[in-house]
Structure formats: structure tokens, C-alpha cells
DNA sequence: ACAGTTTCCCGTAAATGC
DNA sequence: TGCATTTACGGGAAACTG
């Protein structure tokens, strides 16, 4: 017998969320056709924390048509439920570990009778991490990656009590794979270098290659994320999610530089003509944001590097990023809108890069079912244009006062209705 | 003994969703202090469809401190689960009714021994509707409203096999109450009249008052909603939800006319000066939308009535409606933005009405943690401005072609990344 | 008090049943 | 096949619990 597989989240095997169905399969590697329908397999989970497996947890092995007659048993619709003991609380034997570093084994047990002799057989999955909420996925998945990157041991559930260090090369490969496995593009050397600086701090390339990375609670954890209260993995996962759900085509095209430090950004943009811009991810936002940075000349002819506040999934829901780029305008003192974005770095005209990803402008057209006799106009189509007003034109928004009060958080919506500011008199 | 109460959704008692906790309470109206801790109550549900009650379903009555010593038992953390029978399928005795019209009774049973005589006592809740998904709530709640509007019968579970008709006056009161019970404002006569026209078609006021409304499958159901595939109740519920979550303050102020026909809108706006506008709900969108309609003069001096495509919750998430109103612009042929909105009907300057609900403009400010030595600019704040470009300036968006292809649905997001249009050559 | 963790449950999407 | 209904589960928020 041998290693079973453990799909759940399609892209995140070996992480199981309580209450969510998972599937797994055992195969008998040695062929014993005569045992067809003879082996009854039982799935269990280790007892370090008390989980119950719900669903049909015993099954008889049978021959796979597809796989040249080897015996297998597939368990579907299994779920895990934590058994809170009477007095409550976690029944964790190793309370020193946080949940996402706690490793568990799914075991498969059976008995074979051979020449009157009972033989107990047992095999198990690779270590799995059990989570209770999807928000634990990024860290759980990081644990799976770290384990499989650094050991071939099939069942070292105490791996994280003393996690081994990894080299930057190993980490870089794994990071790039997070992108290449779910999009058409992995990470470039430049992108990886930016991430390395984030994780390792400033050092030379040679040093980086030699450097050994520590696990979560150290370099990859909260501490190195400048006390922002979320781990590197959470930050990166949200970016991967942003890429997959909102800007996949642009990412696949290679239009998104993404990971680039502000210093390097300035260095490569400064020599470029005004209007040259690049796209990069927000470094500070946990939820994953993307922004553009461009070169322009100020009134004195001095080169300026500008960025807009990063766009989040929230905003990308009502407008695609390509459309935001194409439509973005700066409002000048005479209320004229001009786009500061002309060439995607190095020198691709923005229309060439993003035009094809914009939906066509809808021409005004009578509303369906509208009364042809009436002269009521059809609905006017609205374009949300992202505009950055120049300070000199704030007077165009008469009642919106110009306060120093900057609230850098994202636009959280409806609170202004619930907590109206006091009216001015 | 008497009627228990049945909270679940705070505002929607008597609707229970399977798998969601609910609470109920029985009180003994006659005082028998000597029975304290003597009466064991059991909760059950009728057997018309087979539901199981999960949770602690027996409890002993005890004295309430708060309620001058009457006996009561409160059941918390109860949930309902449908027991699918072996062969699958609904075990509904009355298959003619749709789920949201199927009424069930929660019963409370107990036994009293009095002078050696066993007395079975039983009471029950008002009829409840059991749903399995929250999307069934609007129709389920409508059933509860209809039942309680038209009968005092405590347990007529077959009510909807032959639902009685209601008068418009009754319906109007209930509709208004849907607003007044969760906001500070019910419906005006004008708003109710619009709804009446929607439900009853064109008729005089006198006729309306006399008119009797039929239940769901007839006037209040899909049919009268012009084959749009959703019931009046779903439409109205989404509007109530929109009001509560996104425009509560504006609603409470009475700024939202909301329910007004396009004809009446034209009639009241036409005599008004250009720039006069009103706010009304979308009539065609299931998800609840709100738009503004204004008067303007075209180049020939002719009065025009214009509306924008309604804003949905999706869009109101990233920008409050007050801000949308304040910022909305029409782009003229010279790229100048002008606001067509000046006076909220009848003649309230828009700044006076909506200014206080706009968040203050944030002045540009260095990013926290930014390097003071560098000349990298802080993030520029973005304002999403809703702009309606005039046809003559479509050339300002060079690669967004002007096609006749109008897609009236809401902006569903990221599809443009997944299904890019083919590039032009 | 507080942080790590789990539970609750809406709302969308998919699956299922009739 | 199509429609009615249920199930699945991510994600935000509240509740829990040492």
C-alpha cells in the first residue's frame, strides 16, 4: 500500500476545513486481483486533537477500470468535525503550536487474512493541516509548502516544533510556483528579488542565494511585515487571488510588474518620457491592491513620480482594471481632464495593451419596453471615471470640505449614511 | 397556556431557515407557582413535511424573575433539519403548495398531574414558513404577512390552498409598515399610489380603495411583474434592503421619492427649472437599484427629462449615493464636466441636502512610513466620478469602440479579463 | 482584556430532485 | 428538459475561550 492523495480546495491539497467535504483515495500498489472486494478499508484521523470523520468512512477496495486493474478505494463526502470535550477547549496534545502548524495524519486501516494469519495493514496521508475558517488558509497552505519543500519524511507531525530553515533558492521556486501553477506566468527574477528584499532585508545577490530563511514566527511571519498584523503569506495570497479573479489576462500578458520597490520604480521610470507608467501591487494593504505609477513633469519641468491609491477587489468589482487605466484622468485647474498614462513601461502605448480588455462603450438606446410615444429619454450610461482633482479645483465640490483628515483605509461604504457628519450652518 | 413567540431573523419572525438557530418561548398565562420546576415542556414540529428539531427540545418551566412570577420555558439554539426519506424527495403531504406557502406549526407539549389525573396540555406557535435558503425569505415573509393580515385563526395551515383576497387598504398598510418598522419613515400616499398602479394596473382612486387583491400567483406574483421572473415581494425586499444598508439617512430625511412612475415624474419635473431632480428606485431591476432623474434644456431649448442607469448595491459599496449625486457630471464636447443636478425636487439645493453626507475631501498627505529623503510622491487620492460622456466625446476613449451593443445588465465585474475581446488590427 | 480560534450565517453558485 | 428547491462553502462578523 502507499500514499493516498488528498484533494479538497482544488489548488490547496492537504488543507482541510472542518465542515467542508473532502475526498481521498488509497491504492494498493501490489496487484492482488484475488483480493477484489475482499479488503475493507477504514479512514481515521490521528488523535492528537479530537476530530471526528463524518461520512462513509469504511469502504471495500475494488478494481479500477481506468487503472489496469489495481485495487483502490475512494472516499468521498467526508468532513471533519472537532469534538469539543465536555469541559470545552482544545484537546491538543501539543499546545505549543498554532493551529496552522499542527499537522495531522489521515490513516487507512485494513486487515488481510493470508493462510489463516491476520495481517494488519495501515497507511496514511502526508501530513494535513486542519482549519476552521477559510481565513486560515494562507498560513495553513504555507505550512504545507514549507513541509514539502524541506522534508521527505512521510509523517513528521512534529515538524513545526523545530522547523528547518530553507534557502532563498528553494523559497523562490515555491513562490514562483504559486503563480505559475494557477496562471500562465510565474515570477521573474526581478519580481523575486523584490520579494527577497521584503523577506530578507537589504543584502547583495550573493548573500541572498546563501541566506537561509526561517519559518513563520521569524522572517516569514508577522514580524518582518513591519508590524502590520498579517503575515507575508496572507499578503501574498490576497495578491494571487486578486490576480486570478480580476486581472488574470493582464498578468498573463506580462503587463503587471507587480513586485517592485518604490526605489527601483523611481530608477526605471525617471529616465522615461512623461506618461510612462507601470503597474504594481500595494505593499501595505493586507487585502491585495494594485496601483499604477507614472512619470510626469511638474510646472517647473521637474520629473515627478506619482501613484494613485491602490485599487482593491471591492473597486475592481464595478470596473475592470483595464478600464480604470484607460479612463483615469487628472483634473486640471480649468476642469479639463487629462490622462497622465500614455506608455506602459517600457514603451507600449496604453491603448495597445489595454484597449482590447475594455468593454465597448454602450451607445444610448431606448430602454426595453419604453413607451415610444413619450419623449422620456432612456437611461444614460454611466462611466465611473477615476479622477484625481487638483487642489485648485476642490472648489468644484462645494460642500466637500478640504480637511487635513486623511483616512488611508479603503472606502468602506455606507457608514456615511449611518453616521452622518453634523451639518454645517 | 398560550401563544409563544418565534424570533429568528430579528425583523422576520415566523420564518425559519433550516440549519439556522431560532429561539422560542412558552409562557403559562395562569399562575400556578406550585408547579415551579414541575412542568416539562417538549417542542415538536408538525409532521406534514418531515423536519427534525435539533437542539435541546425539552425543558422544565420555571419562574421568570422579570415577569412577576409567571412560569415560562425558553428554548434556544434550536435548528430545523429536513429529514429526506430514504427514497429521496419531499415528504410533503400537500404537494400542491410551493415551499414558501407551506405552513407549519411548532407545538409545545406537557403533562400535568392534578389530583392523580394526568392532563395533556398542548399549545402551538402561529403558523411558520420553513425555508432552506435565504433567497426564499421575501416570499416566505410575504406569506406570513398575508396570513396575519387576513386571518386570526391560530393554526390554519391550509390557508394558502385557498388564500383569501385582501383589500388595497390592508395591503397598503402592510407595505408602509415594512418601511416604518425598520426606518424612520413609512410610505406616503403618493408612493403607495405608485405601488398600487404596479399591482392593480390603471384605475381610479375610488376603484383602488374597493379593489381586492389576490395572492402571489396572481396579482402579487410573477405575472404582474411583466414576466421579469421575480415576484413583487422579491423586488420590494431588495429595495428595503438597499434603503436600510445604503441610503438610510437619505430615506429618513425624506429625500427619496422612490416609488414614482415615469409619467408622473415627467409631469412634476417638466415645469421645474433645469437642474431640478428627484431620486427613484429602479422598476426593472430585481436586485434593487436607485437612480436620479433631472430636467434639462437641450440645444433647441426643449425640456428634456433624463435619468442615469440605476446604481446597485455593488456600486454603492465603493461610493455613497450622496457622493455620487454630488459628483455626477456630464462631459460636454470640450471635455468640460458639468453637473446636471442642482435642486432636489421641489427646490432644495443639492449641497444643502447631500453635502453633509459626503466624506470630506482628503488632502494629499505623505504616506505613513514614507521616506522623507525621497521625492517620491504620496498616493494620489482617487475619486470615482460618475460621468456620462456625450457621444461627441467618445473619441476621447480611443480604443473603446462605439458599438450598438447595449448590455443593460449590471456591471458584473471581471469577465472582461477572462474573456477578452479579440484585439483590433 | 485580548488574541487566537471557532461558530454563525448570508448570499452566490452549483447540485439535486421532480 | 426545465424549474423548484436544496446543498455547498467562501467570507465577514460575532462569539467563544482559555
From TrEMBL, chains A, B:
Keyword vocabulary terms for this entry: Activator, Coiled coil, Cytoplasm, DNA-binding, Nucleus, Phosphoprotein, SH2 domain, Transcription, Transcription regulation
GO biological process, one term: positive regulation of DNA-templated transcription
The keyword Nucleus appears for this protein: yes
Main localization of the protein described in the UniProt heading: cytoplasm
Gene Ontology molecular function, alphabetical: DNA-binding transcription factor activity; sequence-specific DNA binding
GO terms for cellular component: cytoplasm; nucleus
Residue intervals of the SH2 domain: 251-341
Subcellular localization(s) per the UniProt record: Cytoplasm; Nucleus
Similarity section: Belongs to the transcription factor STAT family.
Protein name, per record: Signal transducer and activator of transcription
Amino acid at each position: 500500500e502507499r500514499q493516498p492523495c488528498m484533494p479538497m480546495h482544488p489548488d490547496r491539497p492537504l488543507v482541510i476545513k472542518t465542515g467542508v467535504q473532502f475526498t481521498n483515495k488509497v491504492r494498493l500498489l501490489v496487484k492482488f486481483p484475488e483480493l477484489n472486494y475482499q479488503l475493507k478499508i477504514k479512514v481515521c484521523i490521528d488523535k492528537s486533537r479530537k476530530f471526528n470523520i463524518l461520512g462513509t468512512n469504511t469502504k471495500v477496495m475494488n478494481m479500477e477500470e481506468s487503472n489496469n486493474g489495481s485495487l483502490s478505494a475512494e472516499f468521498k463526502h467526508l468532513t471533519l468535525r472537532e469534538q469539543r470535550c465536555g469541559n470545552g477547549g482544545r484537546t491538543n496534545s501539543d499546545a505549543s503550536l498554532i493551529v496552522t502548524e499542527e499537522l495531522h495524519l489521515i490513516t487507512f486501516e485494513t486487515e488481510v487474512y493470508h493462510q489463516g494469519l491476520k495481517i494488519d495493514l495501515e497507511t496514511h496521508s502526508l501530513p494535513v493541516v486542519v482549519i476552521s475558517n477559510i481565513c486560515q488558509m494562507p498560513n495553513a497552505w504555507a505550512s504545507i509548502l514549507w513541509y514539502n519543500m524541506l522534508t521527505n519524511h512521510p509523517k513528521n507531525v512534529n515538524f513545526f516544533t523545530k522547523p528547518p530553515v530553507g534557502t532563498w533558492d528553494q523559497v523562490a521556486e515555491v513562490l514562483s510556483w504559486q503563480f505559475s501553477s494557477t496562471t500562465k506566468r510565474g515570477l521573474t527574477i526581478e519580481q523575486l528579488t523584490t520579494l527577497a528584499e521584503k523577506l530578507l532585508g537589504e543584502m547583495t545577490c550573493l548573500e541572498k542565494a546563501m541566506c537561509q530563511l526561517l519559518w513563520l514566527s521569524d522572517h516569514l511571519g508577522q514580524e518582518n511585515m513591519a508590524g502590520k498584523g498579517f503575515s507575508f503569506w496572507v499578503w501574498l495570497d490576497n495578491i494571487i487571488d486578486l490576480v486570478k479573479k480580476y486581472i488574470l489576462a493582464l498578468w498573463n500578458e506580462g503587463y503587471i510588474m507587480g513586485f517592485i520597490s518604490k526605489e527601483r520604480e523611481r530608477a526605471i521610470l525617471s529616465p522615461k518620457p512623461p506618461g510612462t507608467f507601470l503597474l504594481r501591487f500595494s505593499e501595505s494593504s493586507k487585502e491585495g491592491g494594485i496601483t499604477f505609477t507614472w512619470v510626469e513633469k511638474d510646472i517647473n519641468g521637474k520629473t515627478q513620480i506619482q501613484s494613485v491609491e491602490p485599487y482593491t477587489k471591492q473597486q475592481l468589482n464595478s470596473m475592470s482594471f483595464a478600464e480604470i487605466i484607460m479612463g483615469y484622468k487628472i483634473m486640471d485647474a480649468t476642469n479639463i481632464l487629462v490622462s497622465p498614462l500614455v506608455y506602459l513601461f517600457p514603451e507600449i502605448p496604453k491603448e495597445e495593451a489595454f484597449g482590447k480588455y475594455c468593454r465597448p462603450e454602450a451607445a444610448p438606446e431606448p430602454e426595453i419596453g419604453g413607451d415610444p410615444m413619450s419623449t422620456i429619454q432612456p437611461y444614460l450610461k454611466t462611466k465611473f471615471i477615476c479622477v484625481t482633482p487638483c487642489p485648485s479645483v476642490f472648489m468644484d465640490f462645494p460642500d466637500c470640505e478640504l480637511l487635513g483628515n486623511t483616512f488611508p483605509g479603503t472606502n468602506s461604504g455606507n457608514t456615511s449614511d449611518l453616521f452622518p457628519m453634523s451639518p454645517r450652518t
